[in-house]
Structure formats: structure tokens, C-alpha cells
Amino acid sequence: MKDVDFVIVTGLSGAGKGQTMKILEELNFFCIDNLPPSLLPRLLDLPRQNDTVRQYAIAIDIRAQEYLDDFMGALEWLDESGYSYFMIFLDCNDSVLIKRFSETRRLHPLVKGENNADSIFENITTERQMLADARLKADVIIDTTDLRPMDLRARLNEIYRRSPMEDSLMVDIFSFGYKYGTPIDADIIFDVRFINNPFYIEELRPLTGEDQKVAEYVLNSPVTQVFLEKFTALIQELISAYAREGKAQLTIGIGCTGGQHRSVAIAIELAKRLKQRDINARSRHRESVLAN
Questions:
Q1: Domain spans of the chain, in order of start
Q2: pLDDT tens, residue by residue, 151-164
Q3: Is the Cβ–Cβ distance between 266 and 224 less than 8 Å?
Q4: 28-to-18, 22, 198, 240 alpha-carbon distances in Å
Q5: Which of 130, 3, 143 is nearest to 72 (CA)?
Q6: Cα–chain-centroid distance for residue 291?
Q7: Which stretch of 60-64, 132-136, 252-256 has the lowest confidence by average pLDDT?
Q8: Which end of the chain is more exposed for a tag (fewer CB within 10 A), N or C?
Q9: Cβ contacts of residue 206 below 8 Å, gap of 6+?
């Protein structure tokens, strides 16, 4: 983002545009809030008049709804003007947006007068529809649903330094046992109970997937090798898409019956293979180790 002439910040009301602009200001951007899109050409002509080089950060959102019809036209003009820009779209879960408006006692920008008949949920839905084209046009989408201010600051710093976002995404792989419950905190869950179970081999039963004998038994299976090769390639392919949607961490659950043998060995091997492809990955194990 260092080489662009300016940054456009847009997105849903309550998703963190104000905080984003404060952070960009600290990064030495000249910040302009709530600029009507039709004024973009006049604004960008200023550096030509005084021969100064300055990076602008411009917030455009639903508050300028009477100008939104000009937004896509302004972007088309920019694409042909020779100026380079980077657009950030801030998104957030509906329930979290509603909570934020409730806590701050602010009215949604689409509310017109005290007799507005639409609920806050309906206003958010309408706003999503109005900003759908801008979301598609964005270079990066940051989901602030679970982001603390310090996390948003770190995310913007990553973008500003122009390090690939997928380079900072962490793939967190954990093993678990289905008999102890299916996890609710995983983005992806994969069942590896199709692999032969070391539990039924007496000498392997008291061990875990962290032990070499169990790992060799699990990993040497032809079906395991096919799974590992295809699953590793799939995750590598999806990393950039997850990063673009604003994810800082991708959590993958690998499950077997008891969470001691197959899932442990697979989780460790997956993390190892992803690291070999220069992907940040780690493995952990949800279930406690069986007593000897």
C-alpha cells in the first residue's frame, strides 16, 4: 500500500471506519472523512497544484447516501486517471453491529426522523445492499466482528507494510475426539475415522499419535497419503481467499474417535507439510493424553 496515491475506506456503519481512519492518520496519511465521491477528482488535483506528495485516506460511507450513485462512477474515473488507490471495506456480523449501536445509543445513518418504521436489522440489510458493489470492488475486506482495536491496528500495519496477508495468517490445527463432543470453534472440521485405528493394536493402544510407532502406522497407509496430499494442497489454495476476507487465523479441527491416535498424528503431519510450503501453521491436541 506504500506506493498508492491514496486509500479509500468504506463499509458498514459501526464496523470501525472511525477507528481505521485514526490508525491511518497515525501512519501519516492525510485523512478526510465522509467525502462525497463526486469531489474525488477535485481533491486529487490538489497535489498537482502545489507539487507536494501526500498520501490520502478517504472515508466514504452511507452518510453520503445521496452521493453513493456517484461512487462507482468515481471509481471508474480513477481507474482511467492514472492514480493508484487501495480500497478497504470494513464488514461485521449483523448481531455485533446491532449490539454496538445499542451500546453507543447511536442511530443508524439510514434512520430518518423519530418515526422511522424500519428496524435496525432492516437498516443494516439495506445498507449491505447499497454497498454490495463497493464490497466487490474492494482490495481487502476486514471483518471486525471479533477484532479488538489493537488487532485492527495490527491488521492495518500488515497491509501498510505491503506484506502478503496470507503470510501473516496462522493455520491452527487441533486434534479432537468425537466421543468428547464436536468442537464449535473450528472453521473447518475433518473426520479421519476412515483411517485404520491403532487402538485395536495392543502395543499401540497405550501410545498416542505423538509417538513414532503410532505415527508410522497412521501415515504409512496409502489412503492417508492421498488425504494428506490433497488436503494440504486445498488449504494452500484457500489461504489467500481466507486472508482477503480478513481472517488472521484459520482453525482446522481433525477428529477421530478418542482424539488420541489418528487425529493427533494427522494434525502434526498437516502442520509439518504446511510449514514446508512456507505457511504459518501449528498443531495442538484438545484431549488429554491417556494414562499409561
A1: 6-163, 167-285
A2: 787 788 777 765 55
A3: yes
A4: 16, 10, 58, 28
A5: 130
A6: 39
A7: 60-64
A8: C
A9: 290, 292
| Cβ neighbours for 194, distance < 8 A, ≥ 6 positions apart | 223
DSSP state of 192: -
Spell out the residues 6+ positions from residue 9 whose beta carbon is closer than 8 angstroms to its own.
17, 20, 21, 24, 57, 58, 59, 60, 87, 88, 90
Instruction: Specify the pTM.
Output: 0.55
Question: Helix H segments across the chain?
Answer: 17-26, 40-44, 46-50, 71-81, 94-104, 120-130, 132-137, 149-160, 165-168, 212-219, 222-244, 262-276
Which set of grid coordinates corresponds to residue 271?
502442520
SS3 state at 250: strand
* Grid cell listed for 253: 479441527
The amino acid at residue 245 is E
Task: Give the tens place of pLDDT for each residue, 22-40.
Answer: 988 877 888 888 877 777 7
Could you tell me if 150 and 23 are in contact, meaning their C-beta atoms sit under 8 angstroms apart?
Answer: no
- Yes or no: domain 6-163 corresponds to CATH 3.40.50.300: yes
The rounded distance, in Å, linking the Cα atoms of 197 and 218 is 8
Please state, in angstroms and rounded to a whole number, the distance separating the CA atoms of residues 119 and 133: 23
Cα of 83 vs its chain's centroid, Å? 27
The whole-number pLDDT of residue 123 equals: 87
- The residues that bridge with 141 in the sheet, in sequence order, are 89
C-alpha cell at 204: 499401540
Spatial separation of the C-alpha atoms in residues 259 and 288, rounded to whole Å? 9
**What CA–CA distance (Å, rounded) separates 84 from 64?**
23
Give, as one character, the DSSP assignment of residue 107: P
Mean pLDDT for all residues in the chain: 84
* pLDDT at 114 > cutoff 60: no
